[in-house]
Write a structure and sequence with these properties.
This protein has one domain. It is built from ten helices and five strands, in the order βββαααααβααβααα. A three-stranded mixed sheet has the order 1-4-5, with no helix packed on it. The protein has a two-stranded antiparallel sheet with strand order 2-3. The chain is elongated and about 70 Å long.
């Protein structure tokens, strides 16, 4: 029998008090925004950006706040937690509790870019073509944060690199690997706290880890696919093909992201079996619309004569 790695990473980088600290999740978001800024600045310096270099900092700040954070939170509440939104609508502002949807964040960014483009009389698709070159690095970092948090874990497997996530005990469809009468609902939410609580109350944690199922570290698969691979394709395409029509890179982003997400969701545990839509996880179902969006952008882009980019405006 393989000795699988038992996830015990803390979501806190630094903890000052019981309620105050620096979380990996928030730090990865900040680093993601900064990475996107560096990529866009590099493109602007080479004359490959619709937005001038001296305006990028304000643009990224607005995109982060009004696009990613607001869109991501609203998307999560609407697409994944609608009942809670109806029951307690004020919880939409509780971003510190977690709960962000990548589909909502991408949609929020698209709407913010539309507003920004109209205000500054720039090409909406041209701005998008620049932003999508750096955005996958943000996705990469957030997926790594998902792994650190022990959330959005994968399906049960027996591959040698499988991981046992203590956080699975709180999943609505959790079935212990071996029978147990432990009061699992009383355990804390995060891996190191779960393990510490068990050890304090019952001793040797090997009996606890025996009830955990080895699972795909699907967060890392998504980090590699939706993040690193997508970045490599878009950034390389931007550098090699400097005269692409506006909208082509944006279309490639939506299309590749959606296809990769649909494929990799096969390794990720659904939120619950009850949440499946026509046999698809909600992530797969919503990604189908991104496929159509990507195709629409590609058709629109190739039908235009305007080519990217120009940062002299």
């Amino acid at each position: 029998m393989l000795a699988y790695y038992v996830h015990d990473l803390s979501p806190d980088l630094i903890r000052f008090t019981d309620k105050i600290g620096v979380h990996w999740y928030g730090l990865c978001y900040v680093l993601g925004f900064y990475s996107a800024f560096l990529v866009m600045r590099h493109l602007a310096h080479r004359g490959l950006s619709e937005i001038a270099e001296d305006k990028l900092a304000d643009f990224i700040t607005g995109t982060a706040m009004f696009g990613v954070v607001l869109g991501g939170r609203l998307g999560f509440m609407l697409l994944y937690n609608f009942d809670e939104l109806v029951r307690a609508p004020w919880t939409i502002i509780r971003v510190w509790d977690g709960g962000m949807a990548s589909h909502g964040g991408i949609a929020g960014v698209a709407l913010y870019l539309l507003w920004y483009a109209r205000k500054h009389k720039l090409s909406w698709t041209g701005i998008g073509d620049t932003l999508v070159c750096g955005a996958p690095l943000g996705i990469l970092l957030v997926r790594i944060a998902n792994f650190i948090n022990g959330e959005l874990f994968g399906r049960i497997t027996n591959v040698s690199w499988a991981v046992k996530f203590p956080t699975e005990i709180h999943h609505p469809d959790f079935v212990p690997a071996v029978p147990t009468d432990l009061p699992l609902q009383n355990f804390p939410q995060h891996s190191p706290h779960i393990l510490a609580a068990y050890e304090q109350s019952y001793g040797d944690i090997s009996n606890f880890t025996a009830i955990l199922n080895p699972r795909h570290p699907s967060q890392l698969y998504e980090a590699a696919g939706e993040g690193l691979f997508l970045f490599a394709v878009l950034f390389t395409t931007r550098l090699l093909f400097k005269k692409l029509p506006h909208g082509v890179l944006t279309g490639l982003f939506f299309l590749i992201y959606a296809v990769v997400r649909i494929v990799l969701e096969n390794y990720r545990e659904p939120d619950s079996q009850a949440s499946m839509i026509s046999g698809l996880s909600r992530g797969q179902f919503y990604s189908v619309f991104f496929v159509l969006t990507g195709v629409a952008f590609l058709i629109y882009g190739w039908s235009q004569k305007d080519t990217s980019p120009s940062n002299s405006r």
